[in-house]
């Protein structure tokens, strides 16, 4: 099939690459000339395992091309995917301006029947407006259909996720469009949920909000576990083996971040409000997630003090999760800002995200190190803020020899509590008591109550 993918962010670039790898002829389009030049030269604008190999292979085999012109990109295409960004606006709703701009240009250049598919995460009703904008901008009467085909890939494993999707969701009010899109995906062998436009748009938000709720549930369980002397990792394991619950997204931590969950949960809450429904559960999810990093900071400052002048802290992890260089809405970056704000000197390391973080954080009071151990030399404590797997296998004896005092604040439960404590560390994890510090253990709950009472977010 001949396809056009507009937008070369995570969804668009990975989508264009994988579609071409399936044997389709694909045009990727982006208004950013510099970005298109770099991609053509094989330089990926995002860090995503396996992506550059697929892009380069399909460019060289003639199935994948890139352009800055929507007119050129859509000319021959049977399906046009809109994959532009839908960031959070000031009101919490999704900012759809890029979608509207693209729809207008598609309308102006439409030269024959095509299915126009929105892959970006967009609120219910967006595709109907896309249809209206295209219709209003047609140069001459041309038949077309719109469809919704939300993407469920995760950053850091997007290539793998798109090839091995659990399901494909296609929404359209046109049987012809449903048939064309179904034919693109049937070879995957996974279930295809064909539905109407509005349900497809809603599925993506419902899935992300549910996953964010699952994380938030385990984060709140972590508070109770700490107070009651249970271990949240074991509790999550015991719960997750129940097939009805499942073990994924039950890792307690410093709260979810990234470019999707925070914005999508807010946007769904906003959609509900717009329809005169107060989605109380989601309101709590947003509130609890916001407070999660403060609980972690509270734990750290109870031990280290709130004046960190003269203290050096080792920081592992800046990305919002492992296997990515993305720092958008990264809780790690928020915590780094807070620690620096209290006067600490920071020595930081992330396997992929340091350059991006430096653009936001600058160099004041921060030294960017080239490996994990370099951060720890002479530091007063070690903080683990991103769940990179390579951090979990670091040599604890070496860490102890490098730190000024053996203290770890592990925001991702990367280390084993018993092993770490047996080696003489004072180990602060999430949802596990710290040995010998009964006064600090469980203090989080009082703090959480204060946060809610003061409405401090
Ligand atoms: C998410 C959805 O998973 C994906 O389906 C959708 O298409 C886009 O949004 P992504 O944001 O790339 O993907 O990352 P994800 O792996 O879902 O992690 C999101 C955040 O939750 C990260 O900050 C991560 O650290 C955190 N997280 C995840 C936890 O704190 N605990 C967990 O158990 C899982």
Automatic annotation (TrEMBL):
Give the annotated active site: 260 (nucleophile)
Reaction equations catalysed? UDP-alpha-D-glucose + 2 NAD(+) + H2O = UDP-alpha-D-glucuronate + 2 NADH + 3 H(+)
EC number(s): the record gives 1.1.1.22
Which residue ranges does the record assign to the UDP-glucose/GDP-mannose dehydrogenase C-terminal domain? 314-417
Give me the residues that bind substrate, please. Answer: 152-155, 204, 249-253, 257, 321
> Which top-level group of life is the source organism from?
Bacteria
One GO biological-process annotation of the entry reads: polysaccharide biosynthetic process
Per the record's keyword annotation, is Chloroplast included, yes or no?
Answer: no
- One Pfam family, short name: UDPG_MGDP_dh_N
UniProt GO molecular function? NAD binding; UDP-glucose 6-dehydrogenase activity
Which positions does UniProt annotate for NAD(+) binding? 30, 35, 86, 121, 155, 263, 328
According to UniProt, this protein's pathway is: Nucleotide-sugar biosynthesis; UDP-alpha-D-glucuronate biosynthesis; UDP-alpha-D-glucuronate from UDP-alpha-D-glucose: step 1/1
Which top EC class is given?
A: oxidoreductase
SMART domains membership: UDPG_MGDP_dh_C
- Presence of keyword Oxidoreductase: yes
InterPro entries xrefs: 6-PGluconate_DH-like_C_sf, NAD(P)-bd_dom_sf, UDP-Glc/GDP-Man, UDP-Glc/GDP-Man_DH_C, UDP-Glc/GDP-Man_DH_C_sf, UDP-Glc/GDP-Man_DH_dimer, UDP-Glc/GDP-Man_DH_N, UDPglc_DH_bac
Family, per entry: Belongs to the UDP-glucose/GDP-mannose dehydrogenase family.
Its name, as the record gives it, is: UDP-glucose 6-dehydrogenase
Per the UniProt entry, what species is this protein from, by scientific name? Answer: candidate division WWE3 bacterium
Classification lineage: Bacteria, Katanobacteria
